[in-house]
Amino acid sequence: MRTAVLGRSGIAISEVGLGCMTLPADRREAVRIIREAVDLGITLFDTADLYGQGWNEEVVGEALAPVRQRVVIATKVGNRFEPGKPGWTWDPSPAYIERAIEASLRRLRTDYIDLYQLHGGTMDDPFDDIVALMERFVEKGLIRAYGISSIRPNVIRRYLNGSNIATIMMQYSLLDRRPEEWFPEIEATGVRVIARGPVASGWLTGQKAPKPDDQYLGYGAADLARAPGVLREVAPDRTPAQAAIQFSVAPGAVCCAIPGASRMEQLRENARVGALPPLSDEQLARLREAYPAKVYTEHRPV
């Protein structure tokens, strides 16, 4: 497994991590998948307090407790929920975050979180107070680094210019190249992108047949149907999913990708990406030509 650095944190990670949101509902199987990921060389595990209203963090904590010093745990905060009640509300207040981090530490069975991420963000948030709180968490040793999970360019620029964030988690794949517009600005600061959704909700794996009315970010069924074939043609020595994940980690601004896995076979296929040679410049150019980049139309900096 190739290694990378988690942005400005300096923390070493595997190039391919595990996004834990899509773990199976069976707890024993979920734990088994996480522990197999460790055996395969994956060291970055991403979760959030919102996933399963804390259940996902509990599973991650149980699975990784025996190897805590060998792995990097990332979780998120800001979406406030009431246990047992559906839905959530956005609450980035320092008072809530201080309570939430204690709950996450308990569920994760650890006394520190490697990467603590604001799970969204708006321009109306108490920015200075959030940053000051995250810095205090670092000083206290509760977290090693902090970041944001956001696709809003105005929020991203605000944190790039006014905080010590290490990373930005963004949806990025062959079918969602909107983040590329902001990669030069992100890369120049030393911050790095964690690419989530590298297989575009499964549309890039070749295991999902689109229906006539299916849509994904403006792409219709015909575009979705041809995507796995394009990946096979450009990179015939690997699966469409593997080529898609490699596309997502190719830019210099990206430090890693975190595909999910609900089955052991899926995990093993994804993990093998870390041992495959990177896509060539020619292969990347052909893929970019097949699916040109779009741009974010909302939440742009003024």
- In what order do the strands lie side by side in the largest sheet? 3-4-5-8-9-10-11-12
Mean pLDDT, nearest integer? 97
The ordered string of helix (H) and strand (E) elements is EEEHEHEEEHEHEHEHEHHEHH
The number of domains: 1
Secondary structure class reads alpha/beta
Determine Rg (CA atoms, Å): 19 Å
| Quaternary structure annotation | single chain
CATH topology term: TIM Barrel
Quantity of strands, as a count? 12
The general outline is: globular
Gross CATH architecture = Alpha-Beta Barrel
Biggest sheet, open or closed, and with what strands and sense?
8 strands, parallel
Share of helix among residues? 25-40%
What distance lies between the first and last C-alpha atoms, to the nearest angstrom?
Answer: 41 Å
- Report the total helices: 10
CATH homologous group name: NADP-dependent oxidoreductase domain
Low-pLDDT segments: none
What is the level 1 CATH name?
Alpha Beta
Q: How much of the polypeptide forms β-strand, as a percent range?
A: 15-25%
InterPro entries: AKR (IPR020471), AKR2_Oxidoreductase (IPR053135), NAD(P)_OxRdtase_dom_sf (IPR036812), NADP_OxRdtase_dom (IPR023210)
Keywords: Oxidoreductase
Protein name: Aldo/keto reductase
Organism: Alicyclobacillus sendaiensis PA2
